[in-house]
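[Backbone geometry]
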Amino acid sequence: MLAKWLVAPDNPFFARAMVNRLWAHFFGRGLINPVDDLRDDNPATHPELLAALAEQLTRNNFDIKYLARAIVLSDAYQRTSRPAKGNETDNELYSHMTIRTMSPEQLFDSIAVVVGTPKGGFGGKGPPAGGKGAGKGGPRGQFINFFRVEDGADPLEYQDGIPQALRLMNSPQLNNGGKALEQAMTAKTPAQAIDYLYLATLSRHPTEAELSRRVEYAGKQKSPRQGYTDILWALLNSSEFRLNH
């Protein structure tokens, strides 16, 4: 009986809670905060929006894909993270997208897309941080345990410290380039190779100034491979790669 009531169309709580949690997943904060504190004296920043999305979710048989599509196609989600004059401090009205750090899972998978999945994980030897049993789960599980943050941590705040930064900076996989480097080496010109590295890591072309500096840098190294490896390492360790924006 309880399970049926929880997802019943006339239950005023389930749809609101689901909408709030999925909104928080995409934006880093819910329409109601804390995300699990839905009560009358903790109102939503946008009550009409929350009510409308909850109603549509109910009408569409609690189809999560439908709700996710509606959110990511919204103007709020597609706004740039670059604030305009006057809204720099806004963190409630969604006048610009808030920059968020990647979760450990997202970071591992993103690096793996660029350089390939390593047999031993991205990092050095030794047990990962996280306490008893932290090494379980293979390379991905070890990486997640090392980079995971405390439960309830604000996703809009940068949580990584020096150990996490050093693990990435000294990772053999990030220093060797992996499959992205091998693909770049097939380019006909340095400019084409560097353009590919930017697309593979940052999903954009380099600016003219960036391209000019990177081509000049690569030309000063002992070999094109060394130059491209250094550039790829810098891109993978950049804040632009590490952050959702």
About this structure: The chain has three domains: 2-78, 100-170, 177-244. Residues 177-244 form one domain. The CA atoms of residues 122 and 173 lie 6 Å apart.
